[in-house]
Design a protein that fits this description.
Blueprint lengths: L12 E2 L5 E2 L3 H4 L13 E6 L2 E9 L2 E4 L5 E2 L1 H7 L8 H4 E3 L5 H9 L4 E3 L16 E2 L6 E2 L17 H7 L17 E3 L33 E3 L6 E3 H6 L17 H16 L2 E2 L2 H13 L10 E7 L8 H14 L11 H6 L3 E2 L2 E2 L3 E8 L2 E11 L3 E3 L3 E3 L8 H15 L4 E7 L3 H8 L2 E2 L2 H10 L8 E7 L6
Parallel strand pairs: 8-11, 20-22
Antiparallel strand pairs: 1-2, 3-4, 3-7, 4-5, 5-6, 9-10, 12-13, 14-15, 15-18, 16-17, 18-19, 19-20, 19-21, 22-24, 23-24
Helix pairs in contact: 8-11
Length: about 475
């Protein structure tokens, strides 16, 4: 006898144990909410120990490992040839052997997700070495930076995670915790690689180079714009005639030399009071939100470099990294490490160099409330790959003020264009409030041929002309 479709939206299915099984749509939404499954989580469709399809999570979709299509879990199941099962959350597994349904159940019980991709540098000083790793988040610390006399036994949580697990008690940095171990997830790469070879000579546009001996095909990089040049092409074009690779920094033009000098000077200056016109942005927001008490706190901004030797910058860099990690899932590179601390501290990893990355912060009452990462590729272009405001300070005008400081600074350097990667949900804000527009494929292609732009999967690249702001 044929089953009839019932009025509440479909036939109820009988589970394997004979009971009636409801759809767990509300439960499964937890996977795609904040503190749910991080972007880049490796996923595999398994049936009876047989692997049918691999992919990774991106937003509320699954990116197929064979064709890069972005699919819903149900579409991913159908793509694996298993559409008839109609149970994607029970057959899509993570790298630790749990199904999406298992993880959703754990999230509903308050269990947390962490990744096995911990930072390889101290969250306080930015240095490497023997590090104490938090069991709940990717942060790692030198015991000396935490002023620990003895290493803690068992699992250890940083102060932020200890407070979050038990808000009624200030957990000491050396205390072990009895909270259940978090779900450990392995992430796949979410940094988007260009579809073509980059790194050609900026003059002849050819990719060949000599690495063993110094000759005309030896490559030299500009220490500001990061473009590369053949030694012979520099001489033939009349730019310069190098007899050896300089021991000190080398710049391809006067503009790059000037920009680098101003950046270094700005880092050494330290905190600066933001202009009154930018303070008024914050004042208006506070009035609109009913937060204005008659006085706006002194607001300062500062340019930091992770490669600088100023010890007083390290707590500010650590605060900026914490804001980025609070607001974003880990950004995973080919090497498997989280790019956020790498970019904040201007480090180098295989195939990627972030020494030219600067961190710009907005400071209120000695607290970093908003931060952005800035890299200037000479006079033609600058990028702003990551920007964020701490959650408790959002909606108060702080980022608008910080962005105004950044644009004013770029204007003073005569930088012409600013680009950034934007998530779909943020496109309208960047376009309407800050004047950005989507880059076309040719624009992006032209830039990526000569520069190592930071592009993330699932984002759109936006660009704008830097507004010329009077000093």
């Amino acid at each position: 006898m044929k089953r009839k479709r019932i009025a509440d939206g479909g036939m109820k299915k009988r589970s394997a144990v004979g009971g009636m099984k409801k759809r767990d749509n509300g439960l499964h939404r937890l996977l795609f909410m904040p503190k749910g499954l991080p972007d880049g989580t490796e996923l595999t469709y398994f049936v009876k120990r047989k692997k049918f399809l691999k992919g990774y999570k991106l937003g509320n979709r699954v990116v197929c490992g064979c064709c890069e299509s972005e699919l819903s879990p149900s579409q991913f199941e159908a793509h694996a040839g298993m559409a008839g099962r109609r149970q994607p959350y029970r057959y899509i597994y993570t790298s630790n052997g749990l199904t999406l349904h298992d993880i959703a159940l754990s999230l509903a019980k308050g269990q947390r997700i962490t990744t096995d991709c911990t930072d390889d540098m101290c969250a306080i000083c930015g240095g490497a070495g023997d590090l104490l790793i938090c069991c709940d988040c990717p942060q790692a610390f030198h015991p000396a930076c935490l002023k620990l006399e003895h290493l803690p036994e068992g699992e250890w949580r940083c102060a932020n995670c200890a407070d979050e697990n038990d808000p009624d008690r200030k957990a000491g940095p050396g205390e072990a915790s009895s909270i259940a171990r978090p779900i450990v997830i392995r992430l796949t790469r979410v940094v988007e690689a260009p579809e073509f070879e980059i790194g050609c000579c900026d003059i002849c546009r050819k990719y060949d180079f000599s690495s063993n001996i110094f000759n005309d095909r030896t490559i030299i990089f500009c220490d500001q714009c990061e473009k590369e040049f053949h030694i012979g092409c520099l001489r033939d074009s009349g730019l310069c005639d190098l007899k050896e690779i300089p021991e000190d920094k080398w710049f391809c033009c006067d503009d790059c030399n000037r920009i680098h000098g101003v950046l270094q000077m700005s880092v050494s200056i330290g905190m600066q009071i933001i202009p009154v016109s930018f303070s008024n942005i914050i004042r208006r927001k506070h009035v609109d939100k009913g937060l204005f008490t008659g006085v706006i706190d002194s607001v300062q901004w500062q340019i930091l470099s992770g490669k600088s030797c100023y010890s007083e910058h390290l707590p500010l860099l650590s605060s900026a990294a914490a804001i980025f990690q609070e607001c974003f899932d880990p950004i995973v590179a080919n090497s498997g490490c989280d790019l956020i601390p790498v970019m904040v501290y201007g480090r180098k990893i295989p195939e990627q160099e972030f020494g030219g990355m600067y961190c710009v912060v907005l400071i209120v009452r000695s607290v970093v409330v908003s931060a952005g990462l800035l890299r200037i590729f000479g006079r033609e272009l600058a990028e702003l790959p990551i920007v964020a405001t701490s959650r408790k300070h959002q909606g108060k005008g702080y980022f608008q003020a910080l962005f105004a400081c950044i644009e004013r600074f770029l204007s003073s350097l005569n930088v012409e264009n600013l680009v950034l990667p934007a998530a779909e949900e943020a496109l309208s804000i960047w376009k309407k409030k800050f004047g950005f527009a989507k880059m076309n494929k040719q624009q992006l292609f032209d830039y990526q041929r000569q520069l190592q732009l930071t592009v993330f999967k699932g984002t759109s690249m936006l660009a704008k002309k830097v507004q010329q702001i009077p000093e």
